[in-house]
Amino acid sequence: MKKFLRMVWFGVASGCTIFTVVGVVLALALGGGDPFQGMEDGFVRMAVASIVTGLGFSLPSLIYACEGLPFVVRMAVHLVIGFGVYLAASFWAGWIPLAAGPGAVIGFFLAAAVVVLAIWLGFFLYHRAEARRINEKIQERRG
Q1: What is the pLDDT of residues 89-98, one digit of tens each?
Q2: Strands annotated E in 1-143
Q3: Terminal CA-to-CA distance of the chain, rounded, Å?
C-alpha cells in the first residue's frame, strides 16, 4: 500500500510538473501569450488531464515488481497503459490538433511517442546504473 501511495504521489507530481513546464515553454514561444487562451475550461481541463496522465504512467510501473513476467512484457504493459491513458486524456483536454489535419495529428502522436520513450529510457538508465552501484557495493563488502 505504501508503494502504491508513493506512486500516486509521484504520478501527480510528475503530471503537474510537466504541465507547468510545457505551459511555460508555450507561453515563452508565444511571446508571453496565454497558451490556454480560447480553450473551453482550458486550465482546469488540462491540469486534470496532466494529473491523470501522470497517474497513467506511474501506477502501471508497479508491473515491474512482477518478476515472473519477462522484462519486455512488463515494459510493453507499462508503456501501452501509460500511452493509452495519455491519448485518452489528450483527446479530452483538446491537445490533439484535430482541426489542423491528419499530418498534424500524426505529428502529435509521433512527438508524444518520442517524449514518452525518452522519459522511459531516462528512468531505465537511472535504475540500471543504481542497480550496478548497489551490486558493486555488495561485491566490495563480500571481499
Answers
A1: 998 988 888 8
A2: none
A3: 37
Question: Of 57, 70, 41, 51, which is closest to residue 13 (Cα–Cα)?
Answer: 51
Locate 35 and state its grid cell: 497558451
Q: Phi and psi for 32 in degrees, rounded to 5?
A: 95, 5
Q: What is the pTM of this model?
A: 0.77
Residue 32 to residue 106: CA distance in whole angstroms: 28
Roughly what angle, to the nearest 10 degrees, separates helices 42-58 and 2-29? 140
99 phi/psi in degrees, rounded to 5? -70, -20
Dump pLDDT digits (tens) for 68-105: 999 899 989 998 999 999 999 998 988 888 888 898 88
